[in-house]
Amino acid sequence: MITVQPAKVDEVSEIKQVLSLTWTDTYGPFLPPDVIQKVTALWHSPETLAAEIENDRVFFHVAKDDQGAIVGLLTAGRPSDEIVSIGRLYVLPGSQRQGIGGKLLDACVAAFPGAQKLVLEVEAQNEKGLAFYRKHGFREASRKEEELEGIALTAVEMEKQLHENPRK
C-alpha cells in the first residue's frame, strides 16, 4: 500500500537519495556522470530541499511504501490561480509502473482546487517520462533548447487541462 503525504525536513537525506538514484537512471543515458553529480549536488542540496519543504507555497509530497520508505516524490507550485507547475516527479526505478506517479499527480491536483491546467518540462530524451505524462493526459505544448553544463538539451513543455474555464 502506497501512501502520499507531505515531506518532512527530517526526510531530506532519504529524499536526496531517491533523487540521486532516479536522476542516474533517468539522465544517465544522455548526461555524463560528472554532470549528474554536479547538478544534483546543487539542485538537491539538503539546504535547498529543506527550504522547499518548509515553504508553504511549495507542494512537496512523498510516496511511501508499506515499510515507510520513500519511493517517489513530487514538487509543484502555483504561479497563478489557473496554473500548477510541476517541478519534479520522480519514482525510484524499481518502483515505477506501479501507479505511484499517478497517485502523486492525483494528490497534487487535489491540493490545488480550482486549478485549470498542469504544466511541466521534461527532457526530450527522457522517453520514460514522456510516455508517463502522455499516459496521464498531458500533451506537448512547445519545445525549447536549453544548455546544462555545456550540453545542449531540448525541453518539452507539456500541459494538461484539468477543468474548463467557465469564463471562456
Supply the key terms.
single chain; 168 residues; alpha+beta; Aminopeptidase; 7-stranded mixed beta sheet; 5 helices; 7 strands
Q: Which structural class do you get from the secondary structure elements?
A: alpha+beta
- Helix amount: 25-40%
Placed side by side, the strands forming the largest sheet appear as 1-2-3-4-5-7-6
Low-confidence stretches: none
Q: Give the C-alpha Rg.
A: 16 Å
- N→C terminal distance: 41 Å
Describe the largest sheet: 7 strands, mixed
What is the CATH topology classification name of the domain at 3-118?
Aminopeptidase
So how many helices? 5
CATH class of the domain at 3-118: Alpha Beta
| Beta-strand share of residues | 25-35%
Shape annotation = globular
Question: What integer is the average pLDDT?
Answer: 93
Order of helices and strands: EHHHEEEHEHEE
Just name the CATH architecture of the domain at 3-118. 3-Layer(aba) Sandwich
